[in-house]
């Protein structure tokens, strides 16, 4: 649609200015969607449906058109589920045509089909499904289009559809009811925020008070979906109260139908988010909690499970309201963990894991804030429950399943219990140790593998949280035992957990941050030998051994030029390469683990081992080369192949970054640059997104290492760069590519000029697209700065477009209203905008074209003042913002003197930054002060 | 509504290595971006501070060559040379113009000459900074103007196939370009292959210069990738034989005096007493100042700065007082403080008490050339005065090396000037 708009506005902007024809064509195309920029930016900044209105997508609804006969629909829907592929395809094609020819009639017919009790259940279900898909989609931009489309439909038709949907809720056919309840929720999700369909909730509630049970069940289900679909602020408290009353009544023991109770319990799960006010009211909260707790004792396992799900949700949403109930909840959960069926027991354990999550967050906030103020106080539920909670969890550890380590999707009570134990350790720290040690000691040498494994897992779980002083004596005793178990224990399960535990030991208790080292010259050799040995074990054990080696290596990172691992370096690298070549390296993600560890080995290498890293370059290159040789592969093989290519590109990236960071190694490394680049270019011919991302990252590192010489690769590389920038689907690839444009700008400087037209066009397009993930947009702005700094006044050509995009985004990002995530995003957007301004000002400095920037100065100063007044910028933005003030003063000098003096930024903001504790902010502020004093003195 | 999945990561690191690679890349890119911005800003701020303290001026046209030895004392010594290699346009000229280390004139013999000093025969020619980076080499004269733009065998000095010309590698050499044999004689090394030698002692710099320059192939005969030959100048310990070798030894270039380097001194931009120049007729064609027409004026001329209280001072920091100017002249000629004034030294000459200037017989000639930025330095005035009246001779230098306790003796050597 961008293209269409571009063409239609082409004639209007023929007189745009003196620019080259080719570029002008681009500009004219751009002009069309630059105009839409504000609206698009809105769409990713704010609630899509509320702020945008129907400007973009509104259409008059074509009521005219061919009427679809009801009979015809049924047949087509049946055909669409035919086992005969040709029939199916034909039917799908007809449905598509109906939809395109007359959407309104199409949707009305579908709703009629769904509501018609005489129709076969399959066609009713499918009709409902198509309706649902006409209202919602996964992709944000698509979803947005569908919402606008529905809102602009003829209102009579919509009433007709909605009536059919509500009618279906009372159908005797359960599949029809269930489908209808989902569609109702989707329509509500669109309409309620627009104050449409006000009678919906009222009519649903009146259903609840009517028999028969099946209608009641469907209605409660609908309320559940509805609460999932709409945000709490669009439903007023009066209606919330009614919904909750109906739901909780439906859950209570007085309700005779199990199906109704189940539907009500599940509905409550979604409605909990609406119950803020009700949870603040003691009586109402007591009532809700009582009904939920009763439901955990229901004879129906599905209801018990759903009730525990509610408790889990309550534990995070209403943590601060739980104190009066926590004792009862402990009893309920303990009983469930001991006796109930696994799905219920898992939820009971999850309740405590979730409480741990809450308390860890709160305590972390305490730690970071010296005043001790926190929005939510910590009630130390876990600490209080500790003496009972820990034994309960330890007991679960002995309920392992055979082969759970080989099954990727496994999740059982032992795993959940162990995970929870780890969270408890992080929550309470030292207190857990004496409660777990007897269990470890009592089980670690038992003949039953379950006991040895459980003991080892318990040990591994408590290694994060308690203080090193408490743990190191234990570890010193255990280490030798563990190393021996890893080689000698007959159970693969025990070896797996032992290797994992060793990894945890190295992760948390080994490294320059720990005072008393647990690894000495004496046992280092043994540790390495055992780990390398274990890398020959079964894939799951070998994978954990790689992980342990990863943390062992990482712990030596800050050790200075001479690492204790130097003598083993060659052997470690060789072993990892051998592992990566194992026949079964595809299992238990062993190959991935081997390369990840190899990467860490490279990252932590020292000057001493740099020559060995250099030797690795041709080896990895050869591996990558081999994957590119053109054999015919099945799709499964190809998938494996591209996974391997991703790993190899990642490894090369790490190597390039490492070797490029020091002059002598870079010098030697550069002999491989041409060949490596050749390989990367061939990788781009493969299709996988992951591989592209990895190769792109590696090329960024290569550009940085190569500097201006990278220009020689540009003619060939450019088209892949452009492809990367156009990859909206896999936005990570796009984001990484934007970063690489920055790398290349810095490396090439003015030599990037020949590619700038293409790059800038694409970047501006990306900014205006509502299909591109919003996280990519801030880096695009930063990238403008990189380019401007690299090409200097040559940026003039793009100035108007870049500035207009920046200005729109700046206006939107000044005021934020939203949650933490939105504040964080807005700050990253501000930072991108500010980095762009910095780059542009510095790029134009000392050029005769500086005066071109003067018209933009008032707005930029206003932007700086604006974000200063908002008082919600983070340190990064603060530093960048005050730097921009300096850059503006520096480049415009006396032209901006009086403007700057009038700005708040030049006074209060600058003073605040000058007295900042943050050195980076202070440094930027000093710079701004100097530049301003010069600008206003002339 | 299906039950909600509650699986948590089991025996897994919280962050994938791929995410780590991504994060580290972003970190590197952010760091590089910050560096580029910082570079642009630091450069600008150094120029700002220079502009505010030292007004810009063109090199004085009519002045004789050695007069431009003067430099602003307010030099930004701490400016990272790494940035310098990336500058371009007018900044680069301004920057380089202020980066050269400038010797004072030797008006007395330093203590411990034989222990703490090197001596070398200075080649006659154009003093310049030679910078190799990004595959090209540029030589810039003291006023910042480009002398040559050429490929060289210096690291990063030419676009060769081995890819050595990376962005981070560069060299900065302090050279004198000798016209007749088209050779750059390297008298000091400031940066080599990306490593700054600014904060290294002269001893280390000369050692590095002698080992690295040869190794790089820069001393080879010119070729396609190496347009000019470089050559190290022989540096001697300033003992008797070293001094004698520098003074009278045969070198392939025309000499212009001797340079003395204190072995412990770092490379410092601007005037420094830790590098000294000395010359006599034997080792230099230009001993006595000439005027704009290349002739030696009958009386020595000096340029001094007029201060608020009618004081006439040199460009040194702190300034040295020569005398006070008659109020009449100031009124008649409409002079203001800050003016640079030209004087001849009359028959009364300069008189010293305890090694300090006591009185000067100055005859006012008029305002100095408009383009002139600074007054003369004290050491220059005195050296020129001594050359005309009682020069410091090579024998005096040799004698000071011989004397076991030279501490007391040297000052009396020059105090006899009357």
Task: Explain what the structure shows.
- The complex is a heterodimer of chains A (938) and B (418).
- In chain A, 71% of the residues lie in helices and 0% in strands.
- In chain A, α1 packs across α2, α12 (200-208) runs parallel beside α14 (237-251) and α43 (875-892) crosses α45.
- Chain A is mainly α.
- The two termini of chain A are 51 Å apart.
- Helices cover 28% and strands 27% of the residues of chain B.
- Chain B starts with 16 loop residues before the first helix and ends with a helix.
- The longest helix of chain B is centred in the N-terminal third of the chain and has 37 residues, at 17-53.
- Chain B has helices at residues 17-53, 81-84, 90-97, 113-116, 202-216, 240-248, 327-333, 378-389, 394-402, 406-415; strands at 101-105, 117-123, 126-133, 136-141, 146-150, 170-178, 183-192, 195-196, 229-232, 236-237, 255-262, 270-278, 301-306, 311-313, 321-324, 340-353, 356-367.
- Chain B is of the alpha+beta class and 418 residues long.
- In chain B, strands 3, 4, 5, 6, 7, 8 and 9 form a 7-stranded mixed beta sheet that branches. A 5-stranded mixed beta sheet of chain B has the order 1-12-11-2-10. A 5-stranded antiparallel beta sheet of chain B has the order 15-14-13-16-17, with no helix packed on it.
- Chain B is globular.
- Chains A and B meet through α13, α15, α18, α20 and α22 of A and α1 of B.
- Chain A: Keywords: Cytoplasm, Protein transport, Repeat, Transport.
- Chain A: Pfam families: HEAT_EZ, IBN_N, TPR_IMB1.
